[in-house]
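Re: NAP structure - here you go.
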Amino acid sequence: MSDAHGPIVLLTGASSGIGRALAVMLVDRGVTVLGVTRRPAALPPGVVPVPADLTQREDILAVFQQLGRINALVNCAGVAYLSRIIDGNPADWEEMWRVNVMALTLCCQLSLRHFPREGGRIVNVSSMSGHRVPPTGGFYAPTKFAVRAVTDALRAELKSAGSPVQVACVSPGFVDTPLLDQYFRGREEVLQKTRESMTMLAPEDVAAAILTILEAPTHVEIGDILLRSSDQRM
Ligand SMILES: NC(=O)c1ccc[n+]([C@@H]2O[C@H](COP(=O)([O-])OP(=O)(O)OC[C@H]3O[C@@H](n4cnc5c(N)ncnc54)[C@H](OP(=O)(O)O)[C@@H]3O)[C@@H](O)[C@H]2O)c1
């Protein structure tokens, strides 16, 4: 992850949950973290604010117009609504699709010209809901399946182009972050029971897995990490 002038990581979702925990760990290691957020004031100390609304393509383009060299991109921003296929609000599907899939994919594409010749790493955050569909999960799971497919497609394209940029996907189970409050809105009792029934992953647990990918030696390519609380059934 490092080069002569110190490593630089572009991190979406740096203001909350998993992304925030990762930002703190990276800053502690002396890494320059460029934190993409709609809420610069919520970033942890030491993170360089990069204001952008990831539902807006112009905002994403502006992020990369201002950007110099980076050594890694971590796509951690995400939105989760419990919005079913049979009766969910299409506006919720659209926001999830824009942030979880379109913004992530565009950030992958636009980042490529910012890596040094020796390469770098992209880490995309999917979910256990990108590996099996929870019965009540609605449109969130399809977006997370798409994150895995985008990651695999990008890896194949980069390898056939001879690019040294590596791509990985991290898929956590339940992580105790504000995202769950949003996901279970209107079903707070289900969230409370879930919290009582298990020790969920902490954001730092997932951040540590992402760090393992970022810090692996160059000849070691970690493609996928799945992690969940040992209390989680599926
Ligand atoms: N928590 C879980 O149980 C869980 C499980 C599996 C996977 N994941 C995935 O892990 C990732 C991080 O989730 P988390 O739990 O840490 O969530 P979180 O605490 O709710 O944080 C979500 C982050 O996404 C950013 N974001 C959302 N919409 C955005 C937009 N339109 N423009 C810019 N930034 C936006 C937020 O930034 P601002 O609001 O500051 O703009 C915030 O930093 C997500 O991809 C999520 O799907 C979470």
